[in-house]
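B., you asked whether I could sanity-check this one before it goes into the benchmark set. Here's the sequence:
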Amino acid sequence: MTDKGKSTMSDKIGSSAANEPTIGATLRQGREDKNMTVEQIAERLKVRGGIIKALESDRYDDLPEPIYTRSYLERYAQIVEVDAAAIVRRYDRRAGFTAGQTVVVPKVLPTAKSSKVNLLIPALIVLGVGAIAGAAWWWQMQSSKPLGVIPKPAPAQQTPNTAPGTPISLNVKISVMSTPSGASVMLDRFKIGVTPLKDTRVSGGATRELRLEKSGYQVYSQSIDLTSSRNFNVILNPNPVVTAAAPATAPDDGKVTLRFRGRSWLRVTDSSGKLLFEGIPEAGSSQIYNAPITVRAGRPDVISATVKGVTKDALGGGTPGTFTFP
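And here's what the prediction gave me:
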C-alpha cells in the first residue's frame, strides 16, 4: 500500500484469503511438484525466464497487458496440470473482468509438438523455392544451347622447348631413304636401322640429330624437327679421291700423311676449325693434308701419321682421341 485506500495491480491480484495461496504460489507449487525448472516452463511457453518469475511472484505490473498475462497463466496451469479454469477465473476476478465483458484472448502459443510442425512448414517452403529456382536455371541453360554459343577452342598443343638432342614424350614415325641405300641411320648417335628405313616409331623431339653413315661416303648430318612424323630422302656424297703419295725422298715440312691399317671414324679440321674430312676411310687407304691439322679418331691404334719424314705407327690406343699436327 502506497497511500491509504489505494493499491497496485500486484497487490490487488496477488492478495488472497488467509488459507488460499496466491496464483503465482499455486503455479510455482505445481511446477515444483512436476520437478520442472523455470527455464523449462519458459521454453514451453516460448517466453523469457523473467516472465515466468514475475508470474510466480504475482508481479503483474512487470507483465504485458492483462489479455496476454491471462493467456500465460492459463497455459502455465495446463503445463503443470493445475486447474487452469480456476486460475483464469481468479485472475479475471482480481483483474476486474466481469462475466458480461468480452475478453479478447490472444491465440494460445503452440505446444512443443505443434511448434515443430510450424518450423517444418517454412523449411519445406524454402526447399520448394530452391527446387523451382534450380529447375528454372537448368531450363535456361538448356534453352540457351541452340542459340549459337560457340565453345572456346582448346589451346593448340605447343611444340616442346627442349634442348638439342633431348627426347620428349611424343611417339612419331620416321622414314629415311638414301642414295645409295644401305647407310646406317642414327638418331642422336643411336642407330635405329639401315636405309631404306620405313615408318620406324621413335621418340619425337623439337631438335634431333639425323645422321647417315656408309663406307666410302661422307657422313650426312642434319638437325631435324621430329614433333610430327617425317620422311627423308638423302643423297650421299662419296669420299674425295686421295692419291697415295709417292715415297718421300726428303722430308716435306708442309704435309701430314695419314695411313689406315683398319677402318676408323675420322674427323679432320684445319687451324681455323674448318671441316676438311669426316667419315670412315677404307682400310689400306691414305690421306695427305697441309699442316697444321687436328685429327679426331675413333680408333687411333689403326692410324699412322707421317710428319716431317717421321712416321708414328699408331696415333694412340683403341679409344677415341684427338691429335694435332705438326
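One thing to flag: Residues 112-144 form the longest helix (33 residues). Otherwise nothing jumped out at me.
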